[in-house]
Amino acid sequence: MADLSQVALLGMDRTELEALVDSLNESSYRAKQLLAAVYRQRVESIAQITTLSQHLREKLAEKGVSIGSPRVEQRFVSQDGTVRYLIAFADGQSVEAVWMPEGDGGEAGDGSEAGEQAERFAESGSFGTSGAKALSAGEQTGALKRGATQKQGQNLGRSTICISSQVGCAVDCQFCLTALLGVKRNLAAGEIVGQVCAVLKDQEVSPPEDRINLVFMGMGEPFLNYENFVKAVRLLVEEVGIAERRMTVSTAGIVPRIHDFGGETIRPKLAISLNASNDELRTRLMPLNKKWNLEVLMAAARAYPLRTREWITFEYVLLGGVNDGPENAKEVAELLRGMRCKVNLIALNPGPGIEFTTPGAERVGEFQTILREAGIPAFVRRPRGRDIYAACGQLKRTVEIATAPQP
Ligand code: SAH
Question: Given its phi and psi angles, is residue 321 left (phi above 0), alpha (psi -120 to 50 degrees) or beta?
Fold first, then answer.
């Protein structure tokens, strides 16, 4: 029989598992049991799949089939409750994932603080959409069940997991620590899903009973690992049980993939990292702007097929004295005029090797006000886990630094 020693179950979908089970002359309902074990129970070894017969467990183990669960190598806990995980794969490469018990606004639209603000903005007429959604039955049960044991002050409705799509990143944004690594390799779909499983397990939470938001905003550029990213999304929705409306993917602006993404039947919400208000500035900060400039990026954003009550999020990292002036805010307002969108402002999270400075709260506030006065919903993202290098743009596998100096 075929050598299965390279086969990892994590990352396989129903069809692939059915083919595997079939190749072992087992009946197809075994595939269902494997799906449940891998994605719902999140077992870490074949031996733990107690729904299977002893015989089949032995057969799988003999052939060298593994679950393929990544290993949590290190765990850094921030003063604000954020946890940064260093997660290692079979070949020794590693990425980071972040658990934010109260979100950071990046997942806005999902019941997070920024989401609720956005919904209120919507009710006031700017979007012409209706307000917050009620909890589903499953979510209510989860909320009740958890009520008794929940740590004080923790709001699981906002909990957000931020995951990586590549080891390192090729995009080379000048203000981002991940860029300093360069790109090492793409993650397989199972490695993307595996990060979520590892964090859910460690935090002892389980969707859909627990409301979990997911952002593809960790290391790497998801749209440069498009096929694996799309497969991971499907597994996360269909098997792990996280609703697509609770997921947001952020791209630095890979325009052809923005077009493709609009055609996907299962797709998270879209965020675009804008970060500059004109081409000259954007090319300086994000060299990929030479390839896809603001004109083609904005054309793709305007052509993007939004669903009901959906809007595009633009992220804008504010760099002191570089892109954070009132004239920049006015240019951004001009770029986004008439679009169903909102802006998440992120004051630079500093890091070693990053030459920019973090603007003060007042300057950030002025930028926000100009956008709002132009009718564009704008929110300031709360930095989460800056002290442990877990905030936006700080993911660089800084194993040597457990605690960063406060800005
Ligand atoms: N590569 C994708 C996914 C990463 S998302 C993308 O670029 O969209 C990470 C977000 O953090 C991006 O919006 C990025 O602009 C922002 N970011 C990067 N470096 C940062 C820093 N040092 N401080 C604050 N935000 C940063």
Answer: left
How much of the chain, in percent, has pLDDT values that exceed 90? Answer: 73
User: Would residue 392 show up in a list of annotated catalytic residues for this protein?
Assistant: yes
Ligand 1: centre distance to CA 52 (Å): 43
- Report whether 307 contacts 205 (CB < 8 A): no
Residue among 399, 345, 388, 393 nearest 82 (CA): 388
Which spans in 253-403 are helix H?
A: 255-262, 279-285, 294-303, 326-336, 361-373
Q: How far apart are CA 146 and CA 12, in angstroms?
A: 31
Distance from residue 220's CA to the centre of ligand 1 (Å): 10
From CA 268, how far away is CA 250, in angstroms rounded?
10
Q: Are 189 and 231 in contact (CB under 8 A)?
A: yes
Q: In what side-by-side order are the strands of the sheet with 312-318? A: 71-77, 83-88, 94-100, 160-162, 213-216, 247-251, 269-273, 312-318, 341-347, 378-380
Determine if ligand 1 sits within 6 Å of the CB of residue 166: no
Structure tokens, 182: 């360069």
Helix (H, G, I), strand (E, B) or coil at 95: strand
Q: What is the pLDDT of residues 23-63, one digit of tens each?
A: 999 999 999 999 999 999 999 999 999 999 999 999 998 88
Adjacent-strand bridge partners of 272 = 251, 314
At a CB cut-off of 8 Å and minimum separation 6, what does 129 contact?
A: 122, 123, 308, 309
